[in-house]
Specification:
InterPro entries: Methyltransf_25, SAM-dependent_MTases_sf. Residues 49-131 form the Methyltransferase domain. This protein is α/β, with parallel strands linked by helices. It has helices at 13-20, 25-38, 57-65, 78-89, 92-95, 131-140, 158-168, 174-186, 190-200, and strands at 47-51, 70-75, 98-102, 115-121, 141-152, 206-210, 215-221. It has one domain (13-221): Rossmann fold (3-Layer(aba) Sandwich).
């Protein structure tokens, strides 16, 4: 099935609230489980960067789980970051260890070769040029930095898209159902991501695999 790109930013208040009010516990906990499974014992005290953080649910979960870690969180949508800020203000200890940055990649507001851990969930499928993400990793991460990027994987057919929307967004708002539908069409297949890694010269250090019926993950370490 051919890819259908969608807008790079979810920058309306309606989209931000629909996204923030939806329970993403299952995929977000899958993300953190993969992180702990692949890189045990290396995360507490890490200086982390979350690219495309949205309302920062993963940032909050990560900082709760690793009380000595810090996290810079980048997103191009101010409405998303406004929701993230409101949640952080309810947990002052986490707020002291988080920095929200409204910007897109490549961002001059991010330090170079500064991060021990680079995270991203559901950013890749929004990018019209995925190399913007892959080229940024060696610039932002320290030597040996851990990388975990998770995203939707494009299904094989429009019927498969409809089935996933019905299975996982049943009862969700119309806005969220439409966004999920569009995101599945905009997502990349694992083979396409593998080709992107080869083009970026990262295929020797990063691997891609399916981790659920609708998610792929890219993980490894930077040189």
């Amino acid at each position: 099935m051919r890819r259908r790109p969608e807008p790079e930013l979810m920058d309306t208040a309606e989209q931000a609230h629909a996204y923030a009010e939806t329970d993403f516990t299952e995929p977000n906990e899958l993300f953190l489980h993969l992180l702990a499974e692949r890189h045990p014992g290396e995360l507490d005290g890490a200086r982390a960067l979350d690219l495309g953080c949205g309302p920062a649910d993963i940032v909050l979960r990560f900082l709760r789980r690793y009380p000595r870690a810090t996290c810079d969180a980048l997103d191009g949508s101010q409405p998303m970051l406004d929701l993230a800020q409101a949640d952080l203000e309810r947990e002052p200890d986490l707020a002291r260890r988080a920095r929200l940055i409204c910007d897109k990649l490549p961002s001059p507001r991010l330090e170079t070769n500064a991060y021990d851990l680079i995270l991203s969930n559901s950013l890749l499928h929004h990018l019209h040029d995925p190399q913007v993400l892959w080229r940024s990793l060696p610039t932002l991460g320290r030597s040996g930095a851990t990388v975990l990027i998770m995203d939707l994987a494009r299904p094989a057919s429009s019927a498969a898209v409809a089935e996933l929307v019905e299975r996982y967004a049943q009862g969700a708002s119309a806005v969220l159902r439409q966004d999920f539908h569009n995101s599945l069409f905009a997502a990349f297949e694992p083979a396409e991501v593998a080709q992107q890694l080869r083009e970026a010269g990262l295929d020797a250090v990063l691997s891609v695999e399916m981790v659920s019926d609708r998610h792929l993950a890219v993980w490894g370490r930077l040189c």
